[in-house]
Write a structure and sequence with these properties.
69 residues, mainly alpha, 3 helices
């Protein structure tokens, strides 16, 4: 369950990047949308940016302090 919050946005972003390539992308001259691999990678990176890292790190710090006490 805890990995879902980290992995799901990346997978959804990658799927979105591929779908953008498939339905909107161009055949020549486009650096990002002309290649399915690059478009998928950009989408995955965009999904990665939506991960709420701050709450994940704060949760880990709280668990560490509980274990140390």
């Amino acid at each position: 369950m805890k990995w879902t919050k980290r992995i799901l946005p990346v997978v959804v972003g990658a799927l979105g990047g591929y779908l953008y390539y498939h339905y909107v992308g161009c055949n020549r001259g486009c650096a990002i949308t002309g290649n399915p691999f690059i478009s998928t990678a950009y989408g995955a990176f965009a999904g990665f940016l939506f991960v709420d890292w701050k709450s994940i790190f704060n949760k880990n710090k709280k668990e560490e302090t509980k274990e140390n006490k």
